[in-house]
Amino acid sequence: MQMTDQKEIAADPATVYAALLTPGVLKDCVPGAEEVTGSPEEGFEAKVTQKVGPVKATFTGKVTLSDMVPGEKLTITGEGKGGAAGFAKGGAVVTLTPSETGTLLSYDVEAKVGGKLAQLGSRIIDGFAKKMADQFFTNLQEALAPEGAEEAEDAEAEAAPAKKSWLKRLTGGN
């Protein structure tokens, strides 16, 4: 399976690059991550629990980084084993480009799955992989969002009048 996409992140390339090398940020951003340890130099070890179609599995694996150009580009290669569920392995080339609003993050992913996961069919696997990638980068965007943006959203939510449910409107309840 191959996948290419790009996301706009409201932070400069150096900040985004540093976040991608931080185990704590990775743990917060990878959907289902229970544990991420290690370093960019030695590689990371991760434990992730996910449900793909009817198959739920806990994957343990190793991720290595290569072709690292600070603030510009890196290649991520990983392999995980999920016991009876099978395995997943692949890699991604991540490119960071300065933009008007921060950083344009582009990625090209190539992945392979085996075992029970491979039996689910490519439509389920491809959809799941896209959802995981989208969720990861959405989480990264939120983790790197400027403090003021979150406070402004909170203030807007508090200032908006509370909407009554249709049942309360019908019964005149408060």
Tag the structure with descriptive keywords:
174 residues, alpha+beta, globular, seven-stranded antiparallel beta sheet
Structural class: alpha+beta
Strand order of the largest sheet: 1-7-6-5-4-3-2
* Structural Rg: 20 Å
Strand content: 35-45%
Distance from first to last alpha carbon:
53 Å
Total of helices: 6
Largest sheet: 7 strands, antiparallel
| Helical fraction | 25-40%
Give a description of the structure.
It is a single chain. With 174 residues, the protein is an alpha+beta fold. It has six helices and seven strands, in the order E-H-H-E-E-E-E-E-E-H-H-H-H. It has helices spanning 13-20, 23-29, 116-119, 122-144, 147-159, 166-171; strands at residues 2-9, 33-39, 43-52, 55-69, 73-81, 87-99, 102-114. It is globular. The protein starts with a strand and ends with a helix. Residues 148-167 have low confidence and may be disordered.
What is this entry, summarized?
With 174 residues, the protein is of the alpha+beta class. It has helices at 13-20, 23-29, 116-119, 122-144, 147-159, 166-171, and strands at 2-9, 33-39, 43-52, 55-69, 73-81, 87-99, 102-114. Residues 148-167 have low confidence and may be disordered.
